[in-house]
Design goal:
By secondary structure, the protein is α/β, with parallel strands linked by helices. The chain has one domain (about 5-280): Zn-dependent exopeptidases (Aminopeptidase, 3-Layer(aba) Sandwich), CATH 3.40.630. The chain is built from 6 helices and 7 strands; from the N terminus they run αββαβαββαβαβα. The chain has helices spanning about 10, 60-65, 120-150, 190-205, 225-235, 260-280; strands at about 30, 35-40, 80-85, 150-160, 180, 215, 240-245. It has a 7-stranded mixed sheet, sandwiched between helices. α2 links the parallel β2 (about 35-40) and β3. The chain is globular and about 55 Å long. It starts with 8 loop residues before the first helix and ends with a helix.
Length: about 280
């Protein structure tokens, strides 16, 4: 993998804003390898900065259930990547700045994440991390678009499908594909063929012996703040897709994962990314 130009290190380094937590490290890592595809996993993180933890009101497994563990396993299918290391409950990078942290359970699916007396100062600190992340992402995308003219951004997430408890029935399959391609911001006149070609490749690798169920815009009305922000800034210069993986690769009520399922899903994404790279080169 070609590492980014060292002359650009100042451009890509994370600002030193509340980021030097000795217990949990930086809130994200990134690599800029120079290609046309950027893969992000902004809900993969689980850590919460030490100064916030006195107000934490939820158990670790309950917190994990609403995060997107293991989505970072797929990141290295491209040579540009961003991985969030902190929990979405410390700073949700897929929400607007003013909603990236909240002590109101109505904002977190009824879960009581934070004590009622969570200080405004702590919430503002999370908002500053949100600011720094978006500044970093803007600089990385500006650099890649400046080099290539057009890029593809794949924002990886996962979703729960067993809301009825560990022993309850799973959600009906017709409304819950194995992989949901969120393409709500995508200009189909430009990227329609790419979506079709990537969908075929995602289906091409069997998942535990079966063809993966891959559909488009089935689960969510939008991809969240991050893809919408990217689309607003870059328009057709950045094709943005949100890939939502159903948590069939793990026990969403526990802390175990199915290694074979992860390998199969990663192989399918690898094939799709290679197809996307070919398409991007063909359409320059």
């Amino acid at each position: 993998m070609e590492l980014f130009d060292r002359s650009q290190v100042d451009l890509l380094m994370t600002p030193n804003i509340l980021l030097d937590d000795p217990e949990n490290g930086p809130p994200w890592n990134q690599i800029c390898g120079g290609g046309q595809i950027l893969v992000t996993s902004i809900h993969a993180g689980h850590n919460i900065r030490m100064e916030l933890q006195p107000w934490l009101a939820i158990g670790e497994k309950d917190c994990l259930r609403e995060e997107d563990p293991m989505t970072d396993y797929f990141l290295t299918v491209a040579d540009n990547l961003i991985r969030a290391n902190r929990s979405r409950f410390e700073c949700d990078l897929n929400r607007p700045r003013e909603r990236c942290i909240s002590a109101n359970p109505d904002d977190t699916w009824g879960l009581k994440i934070w004590a009622d007396d969570l200080p405004e100062e702590q919430m503002e600190n999370s908002r500053l991390i949100h600011d720094a992340f978006y500044d970093m992402a803007r600089k990385q995308c500006d650099q890649l678009i400046g080099k290539h003219g057009r890029i593809l951004i794949l924002d990886l997430h996962s979703y729960n499908h067993r809301r009825n408890g560990p022993d309850g029935e799973g959600e009906p399959r017709p409304e819950n594909p194995d992989i949901d391609i969120g393409a709500t911001t995508l200009d189909k006149s430009v990227y329609g063929e790419l979506v079709e070609r990537m969908t075929k490749k995602l289906r091409s690798v069997p998942l535990l012996g079966e063809t993966p169920d891959v559909r488009e815009n089935k689960r969510f009305p939008d991809g969240g703040n991050f893809p919408e922000w990217l689309a607003d800034i870059y328009g057709e210069k950045a094709g943005v897709m949100t890939l939502e993986y159903k948590k069939i690769f793990m026990d969403e009520w526990g802390d175990t994962a199915n290694i074979l399922a992860l390998q199969h899903l990663r192989a399918g994404l690898t094939a799709a990314v290679q197809e996307a790279d070919t398409w991007l080169k063909e359409t320059r």
